[in-house]
Amino acid sequence: MAATVIDGKAFAGTVREKVAAHVERIKAEAGVTPGLAVVLVGEDPASQVYVRSKGKQTAEAGMNSFEHKLDADTSEADLLAVVDQLNNDPAVHGILVQLPLPDHLDSDLVINSIDPAKDVDGFHISNVGLLGTGQKSMVPCTPLGCLMMLRDHHGSLSGMNAVVIGRSNIVGKPMAQLLLNDSCTVTIAHSRTADLPGVVRQADIVVAAVGRPEMVPGDWIKPGATVIDVGINRLDAPEKGEGKTRLVGDVDYDSCAAVAGAITPVPGGVGPMTIACLLANTVTACCRANGLEEPEGLTA
Ligand code: NAD
Q1: How many CA atoms lie within 13 A of 25 on its CB side?
Q2: Is residue 190 pLDDT above 80, yes or no?
Q3: How far is the CA of 22 from the centre of ligand 1 (A)?
Q4: What is the topology classification, in CATH, of domain 33-118?
Q5: Which residues are marked as active site?
Q6: What is the pLDDT of residues 70-82, one digit of tens each?
């Protein structure tokens, strides 16, 4: 039987609707408008696209969007001063410093200078620690989006075998932590894992976050497993015309979809959930800052 396609684009739409409804509630209950500040240093084209998209979706959800565009040669002291100003601005409930930063800037230092309560990317060391100990935290957006889709599809994840391929701080590790907090038995696989196909074949849930186009073939997938493809890889597509490209994930979609029980496509799977979760985190941060009830279903 063909796999169920988990439609991340549609799911992200429902998350954004919930966010917008909570924004209205917060405005009515507390007279506060949730605000998200995005700091972009330099002119990386992909980052510019993300930042534009984040600003647009923030405004569409009824929130305030603040953009701070800084020159590529901005000094660390100047960047830290901007973060400090945002930390102390009561109109700002979420702060996101767009990564990657130019090489002369220390990303860890900058991220850890953000007020953890406003760290809507969930990368601050305090939030990493809180998540790791099962406490209330700000959760990284991409893994949070994956978790929401998994919970929506399965209900309870308790007792399932989950394999996360990739151990990055922004996707693999927090994803594994979230699955563990939901009582999965979790394996983190990576570039040095022995017998990766054998490890993946044990999984009821596979999350691929590697950055290698179509690396996971269908014969690694246990029949009926759920496959979440985080990868975003751009390949040349001369068949679409000169200079054209197409997006593919980290799994080979056709062969995996033939075996899996459910699968996320690329594009239209995990990608749209990431910004939706950023908006959700901003609403959560605003509620916490104002002592308001937190939105149900929008956090881990
Ligand atoms: P990363 O480069 O930081 O980490 C990749 C991980 O893959 C590493 O831990 C490495 O050990 C592992 N790896 C590399 N080669 C491997 C191999 N041959 N076998 C097993 N593991 C291997 O990447 P990242 O930031 O975690 O991103 C991963 C992918 O997810 C990328 O394609 C990225 O574009 C995508 N991504 C998507 C979103 C989204 O919104 N959908 C967000 C973040 C990242």
Answers
A1: 15
A2: yes
A3: 33
A4: Rossmann fold (3.40.50)
A5: 54, 98, 121
A6: 999 999 999 999 9
